[in-house]
Amino acid sequence: MNFRRTLSRHFGLEKIPLFRPDLQTLLTQADPKAPLSERIRWLEEVISWIRLPFALEQRKEKKSRHEHIQDGRVKFLLIHLEQQSPELRNAVAETLKSILLETDPVGLFSQVGLGRDSSLVVEASDRLLRKILPSPRIDSDLSELFIRIFRSEEDADWVENLEDETIGQLHQVLFPVSGSKAHVQEHFRASINSSLIILAAQISAVGLSPEIRERSEVRVASKSWFFQMGCELYALCSTDEHQPVSEEERRKLQRILEGCRSEIKAALDHLNQYGVSVSIVYRLELLEQTIERCEKLLAILFLEAGTHWQKLLADLVRGSFAHRKLSELIQNNLHLMARKVVERVGVSGEQYIVRNRREYLTMLLSAMGGGVLTVGTTLCKFLVGGLKPAPFFEGILLWLNYSGSFLTMQLFHFTLATKQPSMTASALAGKLSDLRRRSQISQFVNELLQISRSQFVAALGNLGMVIPGAILIDRIYFLSFGQHVLAAAYGQKLLESLNPFTSMTVPYAALTGVLLWLSSIAAGWAENWVVYRRIPEAFSAAPKKGQIWVANWLVRNVAGFAGNVSLGFFLAFTPVMGRFFGLPLDVRHVTLSAGALTFAVCGIGLEAISGLELGSALFGIALIGILNFGVSFFLALYTAMRARNVEPTWLWKIFSALFRRLRYRPYEFFLPLSGKRTPVPASVTPVK
User: Fold this and answer.
1) 543: which residues sit within 8 A by CB, 6+ positions away?
2) Which helix (H) or strand (E) holds 434?
3) What pTM did the predictor assign?
4) Angle CA 257–258–260, to nearest 5
5) What distance lies between CA 130 and its chain's CA centroid?
6) Which of 102, 125, 145 is at the close of a domain?
7) Res. 258: pLDDT tops 70
8) 88 or 674: which carries more pLDDT confidence?
9) 628, 589 in Cβ contact below 8 A?
């Protein structure tokens, strides 16, 4: 029996019609005088009998209310029980009531579905350990019993959708005689009071913490709605006598609950404006869940209606499963952080979008400056390789080389082509939330075209200076030292490594796109960290004018610095880590690869290279540029859409409109607009 139950719990076999006792046998096994563990095992078998016949149609289609098979099973059980002898009916009722009276529901009401700790890291660690380690069996704890008997989230649906008639029949079975439910009522009323006191203490402790008070703009603790909530619930629930609650007290409690939510909203607004902390977001989420639980328990205390019990039990079933999911915890609490990081990256990305001919020319000149610097970066990369240092020091030197070059580009307002997509995609995603009509999709496609033109002109400027710059540097190097920057043998090896048909160029280029996206995330996170820590305010508060300048400079440049330094680190240490772990890891950046190819051609000699070899390498450079751009742009756009809760289905509508534009006006992807444009045929399928 234990082996079968273990298989059912871990592999979901309770949904498969294994051998189980029939209903009559189950009912005759009810014994209110049996040990609690045996009575609980009997209840598990009864719930399993109710759950057993999961129809395939129910999994594939959504059933409307009152059509759940389990509701019919419960009805059948109750009708069958009414046909039994009074002794058997009494044994079943007393067994169920004894389980309710001998188990403690305080943990069920105050813990299940709620965070157990005020720290996100501790809560995540606890959930991970509970997945790995077995939980101790505590029969006297109703929360543990609750988790054992409801083993699927689908159980919440049939519990919530039980018909009122079924609830009435169940109530009649449990309490056949008037006044027989007094003990159960008093037991649960006392447990709800205890749970409300515990929840009130948690609300006061978390809500009155300095981090929450500072962001909800409540300076005096006694003026906080969280403090009033704790006092009111304690006064309501601490008395042993059950007294009816007046309408005025109910309205007061409702006003306090709304006040608590207003403080939570004020704290979230503060985080949106001044930087996000995952720890504070977790505490605010915990406060919201705890307040919602208090509302449901108070509704039961005030009204004592069956529908409130049903909703509470269904929410507890769903909450118990959500509370065990590590992904649910991370997704709920990192959402605001992801959105704020994306927004800050998007602000930085606006400067990389060209919207007219003047900006197009400005971007071209900026990219040409970036191309000149990239020539020096490529040369230094080969010089570091010629030193043959240890892998760690090679990574450090390359990191300094890349980061120094990228930071210089930032200070002189130069542009590196493939650094744009992840920034511009985040800026673009902010407009996805407003997509509703065809005209808005057309406007969004225009934004995509502006990004495409920006990327094209930036790549054109980079490559337009990298190639002649590398030729010039190689010529100067040859005149100075009597040899080329790269030896012919090494140049041939490098030429072959850029062939997309015989090398790992394509996956390496895609990996570099991922690294470009990660660097943009690092940029947004760094700016959020600086704003959240109020570092600019600390500099601004200083009496010296120079420190005020530092504060303003820091706000403007911290995201760019973090993105450039992190990108340099990723490009430098990815090959080093690949060699360390024995993995074939390398990077392919379009501008750096174009410079390397130019140095290789100079070292080998153009006359010694076949047209096929050179053509394959040039095709590889084109693929590298496309993958650098495409992968980083897609990841950034997808991340921004998830952070803003935009449905991914909008991507298909956008891509459809984009391909139509590419078919009829392909030049718009590369050149700035001027004059009249030919109309684009509308899609055959209307956009809903």
Assistant:
1) none
2) none
3) 0.69
4) 65
5) 22
6) 102
7) yes
8) 88
9) yes
Distance CA 680, CA 8 (A): 59
d(CA 285, CA 506): 43
Residue 426 located in a structural domain: yes
Domain containing 70 equals 1-102
Phi and psi angles of residue 181, each rounded to the nearest 5 degrees, phi first: -95, 5
Q: Does residue 226 fall inside a structural domain?
A: no
Cα separation values, 169 from 73, 81, 402, Å: 13, 11, 75
CA atoms of 352 and 631, how far apart (whole Å): 18
> What pLDDT digit, counting tens, does each position of 271-302 carry?
777 776 777 877 888 888 889 888 888 888 77
Alpha carbons within 13 angstroms on the beta-carbon side of residue 526 total 20
- Number of structural domains (the chain) is 2
536, 555 Cβ separation under 8 angstroms: yes
The CATH number that applies at residue 436 is 1.20.1080.10
Predicted confidence band at 688 (pLDDT cuts at 50, 70, 90)? very low
Cβ atoms 613, 485 nearer than 8 A:
no
- With cut-offs at 50, 70 and 90, classify the pLDDT of residue 359: confident
Q: What is the amino acid identity at position 643?
A: A
CA–CA distance, 122 with 130 (Å, rounded to integer): 12
Whether the per-residue pLDDT at 386 is higher than 60: the answer is yes
- 659 located within any domain: yes
Q: Is residue 499 part of a domain?
A: yes
Segment 362-385, tens digit of pLDDT: 999 999 999 999 999 999 999 999
- Predicted confidence (pLDDT) at residue 680 exceeds the cutoff of 50: no
For 189-201, give the DSSP string. Answer: HHHHHHHHHHHHH
pLDDT for 434 = 59
Distance between CA atoms of residues 572 and 559, nearest Å: 20
pLDDT band per the 50, 70, 90 thresholds, residue 211: confident
Spell out a b/e string for 141-176, using b for 16 or more CB atoms within 10 Å of the CB, else e.
bbbbbbbbbbbeebbbbbbbbbeeebeebbeebbbe
Domain boundary, last residue among 102, 133, 167: 102
**Distance, CA of 397 to CA of 252 (rounded, Å):** 66
CA-CA distance, 44 to 249, in Å (whole number)?
40
